[in-house]
Amino acid sequence: MTTEPTETTNENEEWEPRIVAYCCNWCSYAGADLAGTSRIQYPTNARILRVNCTGRLSPEFILAALDMGADGVLVSGCHPGDCHYTSGNLKARARWAMMETAIEQAGVDPRRVRLQWASASEAQLFADGVREITEQVKELGPIRSEWK
Amino acid sequence: MAQASSCWGCFQSLIDIHMNLATVLPALEIKFWVCVVDYKLADLEGYPDKSIAVGLFEGVVRTEEDLHLLKTMRAKCQTLISFGSCSCFGGIPGLANFSDIEECLDVKFRENKTVSGGEVPSENVPAILPVIKPNHDYVDFDIFLPGCPPTSKLILTAVTALLKGEPIELEPHTVCHYCDREKKDTPVEKILRPFDGNADPDRCLLEQGYICVGSATWGLCEGLCVNMGSTCRGCYGPPPPIMQDQGANAMSMLGTYAPLPPEEIKEQVKDPLGLFNRFTYATSHLGSIRIKREEAKKK
Ligand code: SF4
Ligand code: SF4
Ligand code: SF4
Ligand code: FES
């Protein structure tokens, strides 16, 4: 996977965190959609990417996003037991446990990543999750500031 | 043939082609190979650019001299081979990036347990670089030949092809492809440490709970360790495309086989970064983030 950093925003502009949000098609993406149609307010920092299931995500997708300069990564899927493909989210959760430790070992603050469960009807829960990681990442500052 | 910071294991493996040396050596005119033939760096520097047909580069760039050697080799060789996992991915020496350079210097020199009043040497030795970057970040290579070390068989295959002027054909399969153990596609009930119990000699080690990264590893060794009774540590790096993140893929694989509760995983997998990126930390995403940070520090 290539990881050419994308263009940095002008440094003088006020910095807003850029967050990649991977949402599974069956629960969280629908939840995000509902948050939109229900006019629930949440920060606009998250760029939502739809995946079929959180089980489809290799940690590579998350780590590559950070390497390319994303300030935070959110992964949102169905509650354990509710995965459309039975156990995709359990696999995602197991990978997450290892990845979280690895992130810390590499000296990256694990608060830059967040794994959450939100069903298709839990629009508020989804929105709260986005708010929480956005605030966490705001406290940490831009990931690039650690690189230059 | 040039050696930067490394253990000589790859060149040893080349020498270990034994009787085949008798056919290979007469076909070669060795222009530079410190320790084997009496040419000095100045000789290498003096050759016209692109005057050497093939160069093998072993090891990582840890010092300024290593960097100079790498750039000189690139300038002088028509075909430059990244030889061994150190050279391809940073390898074991790349794990030094777990610590920043000051911590490394403390352990090695200043607070070295076997000397008193240790100092970082500054005379008659090349300066140490602050972080280990992958060699291909400094120069382009024409061929990557990974392995820690590459087997003698693989080296012989590669050298024979080069001598005939043919491309080196390498199969893309992972280690699992060559592993004779029976696979039943059963999930892992409990992740085991290498010292737990006795492994069934005929079944897939991973399915028994032992962490084997064979499925995330290029099988150019043809399953050397797994067919001998040991788990694969991943020494050939990822299969093509070989700059993918082997550690991330290995974590992905283990999560698939062992969808266990997070607490259990954390308890049994204490050092995921060192375990899954043992040979490829410098070329992994987390390794790349770390390198950027260390480089920023020195600015
Ligand atoms: S790849 Fe392995 S055998 Fe070769 S020089 Fe590096 S550590 Fe030694
Ligand atoms: S995971 Fe390891 S033991 Fe299992 S088939 Fe692959 S190489 Fe063999
Ligand atoms: S089985 Fe794994 S650790 Fe052993 S030689 Fe092959 S790639 Fe290296
Ligand atoms: S489909 Fe939602 S997590 Fe698997």
Name some characteristics of this structure.
heterodimer; A: 148 residues; alpha/beta; Rossmann fold; four-stranded parallel β-sheet; 4 helices; 4 strands; 37% helix; globular; B: 299 residues; binds iron/sulfur cluster; binds FE2/S2 (inorganic) cluster
What is the helix content of chain A? 25-40%
Q: Write the element-wise H/E pattern of chain A from the N-terminal end onward.
A: EHEHEHEH
**Spans where pLDDT lies below 50 across 5 or more residues of chain A:** none
Element pattern of chain B in H and E: EHHHEHEHHEHHHHHHH
> What Rg of chain B is obtained from the alpha carbons, in whole angstroms?
21 Å
Q: Biggest sheet of chain A, open or closed, and with what strands and sense?
A: 4 strands, parallel
Count of the separate structural domains of chain A: 1
Describe the model.
- The complex is a heterodimer of chains A (148) and B (299).
- Chain A has helices at 28-37, 59-67, 88-105, 123-140; strands spanning 19-24, 46-51, 72-77, 113-117.
- Chain A is an alpha/beta fold and 148 residues long.
- Chain A has a single domain (19-138), classed as Rossmann fold (3-Layer(aba) Sandwich), CATH 3.40.50.
- The longest helix of chain A has 18 residues, at 88-105.
- Chain B has a four-stranded parallel β-sheet with strand order 1-2-3-4.
- By secondary structure, chain B is of the alpha/beta class.
- In chain B, β2 (52-58), α4 (64-76) and β3 form a beta-alpha-beta unit.
- The A-B interface holds A 1, 3, 55, 58-60, 63-64, 66-67, 87, 90-99, 101-103, 105-108, 143, 146-148 and B 98, 244-245, 247-249, 251-252, 254-256, 258-263, 265-266, 269-274, 276-277, 284-290, 292-293, 295-296, 299.
- The complex binds iron/sulfur cluster (3 copies) and FE2/S2 (inorganic) cluster.
